[in-house]
């Protein structure tokens, strides 16, 4: 089943009908167009294409590569008035029992796409231990003469999370030294990316190479008339106010992304708020993907 066929069936699910019922009758056609315009990515599609991108990036490197799953990192402020910043990666990483790697996940937070990516990295590494190193320590990278660091994520939206992760590694003097002597290079691999976010990531001092399967589709790039695009934007603004009144900056998605890409493992916050915002009250708004999660019923399409 392709994206278009699956997305057209979204509105026919119980969740889809409940979401649609919240729109005024005159706006339900536009809401149906919005739902049917979403690009849906299954677990199998995601895994297969992400593995392809990892292997493609690694093939361009002569020598072993280190794989890291991108995740949110702890931040701190030296002074209360200062903007919180990430710490050097290995100062907050938890060593694994073998002493050759670090724990890829933060057990104190909810696990999102990074848990799936950690599993993909584990399988790829086991299949080719000579080429891939799973979340290594600095010493392990030195012993293995690692030639590249590949950071893996599902999606580049604004690019902020990936930049934080790169910066955390960049703060390690050893890694910065290796990079300055061109011994090691940075690569970022994702399933999809918004061009503005990818450009933001490329501007980091680490000069990362970015590999992704597809540019992220948005509601601005749909193959429909400008009149219909304007209609969808107005719908997202007008009902965004109803769904998320106090956060105007999210009505069109984070930083106005208007992204239309939905993964089976979750809905990015770069998509319009009316798709995912949910108020846990009898009269609150109910998203098509409540709290950015995908229900079993919706996943079945």
Protein described:
- The protein is of the alpha/beta class and 301 residues long.
- Helices cover 39% and strands 14% of the residues.
- Helix 3 (28-36) crosses helix 11.
- The termini are close together.
SSE blueprint:
Elements: H1 3-10, H2 14-20, H3 28-36, E1 39-41, H4 43-59, E2 65-69, E3 75-76, E4 85-86, H5 89-92, H6 113-127, E5 132-134, H7 138-144, E6 148-152, E7 155-156, H8 160-170, H9 173-180, E8 185-193, H10 195-202, E9 209-215, H11 226-243, E10 261-263, H12 296-299
Parallel strand pairs: 1-10, 2-5, 2-6, 6-8, 7-8, 8-9
Antiparallel strand pairs: 3-4
Helix pairs in contact: 3-11
Summarize the structure.
This protein is α/β, with parallel strands linked by helices and 301 residues long. It is 39% helix and 14% strand.
